[in-house]
User: Fold SWIM zinc finger family protein from Lentzea kristufekii.
Amino acid sequence: MSEHWSGERPRYGKTIKVDNGLKAKSKRGDIGATWWSRRFIEVLESFGMGGRLTRGRTYARQGQVLSLSLSTSMVIALVQGSRPTPYKARIAIKSFTGQEWQRIEHALAGKALYAAKLLAGEMPADIETLFASLGLRLFPATQREMTMDCSCPDWEVPCKHLAATCYLLAESFDNDPFEILAWRGRSREDLLDRLRALRGTVRSTVTREEAPPLTRCLDTFWQRQTTSNLHFGDPTAVVRTDAVLDQLDGVPITVGRSSLADLLRPAYLSLKPEE
Assistant:
């Protein structure tokens, strides 16, 4: 807000309309289609900003926000008001440290469902519980954890320019939940790469021995390859015909009260391995 405050509420002229501004998708009612965007708005309203946020909803729907950018810790928007020069609205939040992100990533990777949902581009419904277990908060708990300012002369926080920015920010979270995490300091690419690495899904480069020239193996090239010369394991090992059922261990597939693997095992054991 402007530091030049005379103690009187500033007077505004007619709002300058914008043709190609960013418009909220919601035309009426609440803004926010997903639980995480609605949660962001709920957090702001819990700070007593509800009434002041409402004034910016019209601005957001009219397209008065000219631009919106998000980076680590900072959201910056240009909002057209009643003056020729657009106002700059800024919303800042503290990002997590590198050590905090390491703890977060290990916790997320340790829960298969969380990792799967994030890899699919969805925010897990109880992810706030995971952050809380680490002594952290995904969304701010107090107004002091966020800093808002605008270049307009209004002394209230948030002014309608900041409020419009908040609503469009919430809708950007609808489109990409990773923006919430990027705001806290970890981009989509970096987070997913780390989760894949921690989950062991990153493909490693395997160094293979170079095959010998054909001229050096003409005598054996057409011979039948055996288990021993292919190095597939111990050629004297006994092959269990039910080994494939071991892959079902821990999978909750049952028929009645019995495990599917246990029901199928007798049939597999009755099979005779190929000589």
Summary: The beta strands are 65-71, 74-79, 87-93, 146-150, 254-255, 258-259. The chain has a mean pLDDT of 78. The two ends are 84 Å apart (CA to CA). The longest strand covers residues 65-71.
